[in-house]
Amino acid sequence: ITARDPLPDRTGRNVHPAPKKPTRRSTQEVETERKAKLKAIEDQIQAMQEAKRRLAEVNTLEDIHNNAMDEGNPQCLSVAIRKRGHQDAEIVDSDGEEAFDFREVDAMSTSESESESEGTENKKKGKAVKGAVRKEIQDMVERQHAEGDGRREKKKPRTTTLNDLPILNTSPRKYDNSGLRKAPKTKTQEIHDPFESGGLDDDDIVSVRPNFPPNLKAPGRPTRTYAFYGKPETSGIKRDHSQKNAVGFSSIINDERKSTTRQPKNTDRSVAAAVPVPSATGISNNNEAIINQILNDTRWRRVFLPTLAHAFYISREPFVDWLRGSPTFLVTVQHIFDLSFPNVYLALSQNNKITIRACSQMKSRKSSIGSNALEIVHKFFRKKPFAGNPEKIREYVLWALRPGGPAYYSEPTPQDCKAKPNQSGYIAPSGFLQSEFVLAMAKGYLPSAKNSVFNPALGKKHPPKGLYALILVVIERALCAYKNGAYIAPDKFDHDHSWKPLRDFFPAIDRVKEERWATLLGNQSGGSDTDLDDDARVDESMISAYRAEMMLVGSSPVKG
């Protein structure tokens, strides 16, 4: 075979690539790596020392518990001997035979382990001696016992013999947690000897009961007893004896513990069984007849509806808490029904006609409040000088919705007053909640709660703050409908569009004094409030960011 030149390399291929040069590290990188390794080794050593220390503490606690235990327990004998460091144990056979010495066995096992460990050490010098960690832990335990707290003397090791052991046919003590702790002490049942503790004497057979003083009632309010009759208070309501939830009439009989009852006329069970079964809504035909009589009763119109209006006027959540599915609404209507018809016992539900009718009444009232405010503002702008003058209407709306404007005050800040409340020359408004619009709205709705049976009644100490907050919201809503000089349909009067204005108005209404409420609830005639310094400043918190989006405070033009 003749030698020949190697074949040429392929295109784009290196047959013998040059080896890559190793990346050289700087001195700082090498030093950093070395320190990191040393730090890891030190952390492992510290962790090992901490583990040894904890194990030594555990052994120390076990020694303390074992010292408190009875040394005569055979279950703890080997543990006690091992914990004492294999001290001499003198064990003598009861038959006089040669005693078996545990020391020799321990010494022999120890010497064998030492010889094995020496051989291993000769073979592998880098490996730790067998049992070195255990010996180190034992030394730490002994040091902890030696240090102590200065108040406990170190007990001398005690040798144990067979004479010290208890009888083996006795049951051992009970232990919990694998024999590390004693079982908790249980209270032994006491046995009373009737001859020692006493009992009946022979003379007790012929004895008589002693005379005790009469049990006199403590003085106080007399007890009233109520009797329930089968006929109601009004002649239009009848009782159905087959229903548990029936109509009853209560009256006070006397102030003593007496009760009288009247049996219903028809007590035949066969007749009662013929009553129709309640429908799916939980209301039978007879109950529907009773409910219809309640809805047509005069107390519904004269007492129930005014009380319902009273509860609505003082509510701070006129939308959320007055829905038929709201638990608060059902509780409120039930309470009002119990106050309005104290002689009728009926548990209402969401599908009950009374609840549905009450919800419909409140829905109509809220709608009426919103529409009446629009009508009042519409009539106001049909008068001179606003009739047919959009520019005048626009200027008045800007002024009315300013802080201290005529939408909220009977004597507002003048329209040409440009000074801010904290500047000189500012004219403070007066007559909060006594503007022409607020008085017209309140005059139409306050009388509807006149016959309410709620306690406390509406007055200067318990004013209808919820009603006045709603009035301010609807007036502001109606005026904003004319912010461009012509009427534009406003947003829907509901919770989504009204909760923020309500939240802004309530703090201002809460600061109104009782004298102002007395004037508002007395005649709604308006007037000055020069003696009410605090009320003159309530306008600072009324115009919120919601209103700033619709108009600018002052004489600036309307946005948009």
Automatic annotation (TrEMBL):
<feature type="region of interest" description="Disordered">
    <location>
        <begin position="1"/>
        <end position="35"/>
    </location>
</feature>
<feature type="region of interest" description="Disordered">
    <location>
        <begin position="247"/>
        <end position="270"/>
    </location>
</feature>
<feature type="compositionally biased region" description="Basic and acidic residues">
    <location>
        <begin position="26"/>
        <end position="35"/>
    </location>
</feature>
<protein>
    <submittedName>
        <fullName>Uncharacterized protein</fullName>
    </submittedName>
</protein>
<feature type="compositionally biased region" description="Polar residues">
    <location>
        <begin position="159"/>
        <end position="172"/>
    </location>
</feature>
<feature type="region of interest" description="Disordered">
    <location>
        <begin position="105"/>
        <end position="224"/>
    </location>
</feature>
<feature type="compositionally biased region" description="Basic and acidic residues">
    <location>
        <begin position="133"/>
        <end position="152"/>
    </location>
</feature>
<feature type="compositionally biased region" description="Basic and acidic residues">
    <location>
        <begin position="1"/>
        <end position="12"/>
    </location>
</feature>
